[in-house]
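To assess whether ligand presence alters the predicted conformation, the chain was also submitted together with FE2/S2 (inorganic) cluster. Input:
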Amino acid sequence: MASIADILAEHKGREGPLLPILHDVQKLFGYISEDAMREIASALNLTRAEVYGVVSFYHDFRKEAEARPVLKLCRAEACKARGVEALVPIADSQSRIKVEAIYCLGLCAVGPSAMVGDTVHARLDSAKFKTLLEAM
Ligand code: FES
């Protein structure tokens, strides 16, 4: 089992390690706790405020655990033009999954698009979207 110390050791000596460390910590624990921020700050010779500022700035970083699985649904212009707004009521009608808005996954030509974990889903229509939600 990896730990924050393992992650810090893995990135030791790298230039600009804060963001990769934060990504790895969130991937391991699902969020970045106050204790983790304190440990990271100490290891990188940063203040806790500097680490907290980065965690707070980027919406992808969580400061608390999310019990529900998370689906990120692209709500940017190209996906809007391709019909993502028709999927929003479907997302809103359930509470088992946390659906977050995201603004462009780089799949604009094949939207509407969504992301679950590291997997992207494209060309979503109502049927595909319901199937995706049910599979989560
Ligand atoms: S606008 Fe949705 S993937 Fe780019």
